[in-house]
Amino acid sequence: MLQQIARQQDIVEIAPQGSTPKAAALAHVAEQYGYSYGMAYRTGFKNSLVQVRMYRDPQPEARVREAATITAYPQAGNGGTVPGLEQGSLKPLPEAAGAVAVLKDLVTFDVMAQYVADRSQKVKGYLACAVLTVLLLIDRSPVEAVASGGAVALLFTVAFQVGAIRRGKIARRLTEAGFVAVRDEQGGQRFLRPGQQLPGHTNPFAA
After folding, report:
1. What pLDDT, on a 0 to 100 scale, did the predictor assign at position 157?
2. pTM of the entire structure?
3. N- to C-terminal Cα distance for the chain?
4. Fewest CB atoms within 10 Å of the CB: 71, 124, 146, 167?
């Protein structure tokens, strides 16, 4: 990640082996070098990786923050200390714990969008339960078939509700932290800092 930052890439990709806390910690480091959080999603084999995308922030204060960090941490790319983290680890320092917790909420909220079912997903899920019930009727009694299909439908319902409740709690925390809820081009809910815009092809965080 630090090599990407050193090249002053417009976009920095972070994928720390599927761990949301690690992704949030690295995103915090990137922010100290003048980047802003863009989005997060799961990718890789069986969606085992949490991928975080950071955008180079064009705001003047971001460049000031970047210059101050480079001055304060000249050996960051050579095994030295990095801003906000303990030496040689991805554990946040006490003064950075709050900022990392907010980034963890942002990452988790975005990643969960893949698993919180919309109406079409619910229809497909319950349709699958109905198909399962019909298939079970071939070699089981009607009572057993209906009971099995109903049990699977109940599991779907619980999973949908638990995901929605957890994401709602995260949304409230982000709102309390001063973030603003917006809708992206696909209609999904996102959270941005005041004055920040959804990432685009150029100058993604211009006011």
Report:
1. 64
2. 0.75
3. 26
4. 71
